[in-house]
Design goal:
21 helices; globular; single chain; Growth Hormone, Chain: A
Length: 444
Amino acid sequence: MSRATGTAQGSGGEGGTASVSPSYRRYILTLLLVVSTLNFLDRQIINILVEPIKQDLQLADWQLGMLTGLSFALFYSVLGLPIARLADRSNRPVIIGISLLAWSAFTALCGLASSFVQLLLARIGVGCGEAGGGPPSHSLIADFTTPQNRASALAYFSLGSPIGTLLGLGLGAIVADAFGWRMAFFVAAVPGILLAAVLMATVKEPRDLRSLKAGPKAGIREAWIELRSKRTFWWICLAGAATSVATYGQGAFWSSFFLRVHGEEIAALAPTGTGPLVLVGLSLGLVKGLSGVAGVITGGLITDRLARNDLRSYCSVPAIALMLASPAFVLVMLAPDFTTAAGLLILPVFLSSLIFGPSFAAVQTLVSPGTRATAAAILLFILTLTGLGLGPLLIGIFSDLFAASLGSAEGLRWALLLTAPANLVAGIGFWLARRTIVQELELD
């Protein structure tokens, strides 16, 4: 292994980047991007459906927080670790394919739920399936790329987040408005069931599994020993947890916020023959999807370019972006009308999306090839359990508390505003990670 000295070097990892053609590498990255897109589509589609689900099943905001956050996050986080260790020594395309099939099937079951408990169990199933998607994909991409283009490659994969959000919010709203919220879940489930077979049949594991199995049996404990000395990794985890509380918490209630706070204006602006949900879904989908895509691509390209001269850019880019995102979010919450708020939302979404490529690439380059999936799983464990697990639930609880004196609309607004400082904390965490990243990167 070569230790970083301040500029990027090295030629790839254990995956043997030179052993596959550029066209096959592009095919793999594109296929994994589609998997990532379906991951976030199936995860996020419930966010545009919370108001019709709330009315149909007579739920409180804290229950919506459970459905959009904790029910998914707890099992996603816990199962991600053993699945990641399996992925570090087994066939990753098969693991990803089986996981995709599982979470797609449970997404369909969400549409059959007739009570809070049934929907909760179905969402738990979605979380269990998606636990096998992200970490093995991160590890596979790292093996097919060199350190010099890893941030861009992982940023490309991370485009699944804004694209999946766009499709989930936009198409989910259209389908729900025309056919009901249950049909939206059914439609979202179909592509993943079909894609799983394609992925397992066409993507080959690049590692020699026989040599891996014959080697020392490293487990989570051994991976933990390697990771615990990486101070940069833990600063990134802390920063990621803070920004995830804001991102996931706000994302779960954006549609509710707009419908409650700007409901009359939205009803007047809604296209003829459709309900307010369609306008909100399309607006949020386009704003979060397009500005998110722009942010992810920009973050990956800028970081790869800057890191050629200064490896601290893996942390500098996210730090600056998140410090600017916090006040931008406050402007959205205090905007006087829907049109202004939706327009201003472009800025915090763009800034928050800049962090995907650099932070994921930093983590994949901080550890040895045999620990990459586990490192990604630990990062996603912390991000998901704190952000998706606690963010929506806490906002739901405070929204219910504030509603008693402020009303449903203002109660939700002030509950959301409580998350504003989270990105400032995250920015500080990434800035502190700059101090040690050069010494700790592993660039083989």
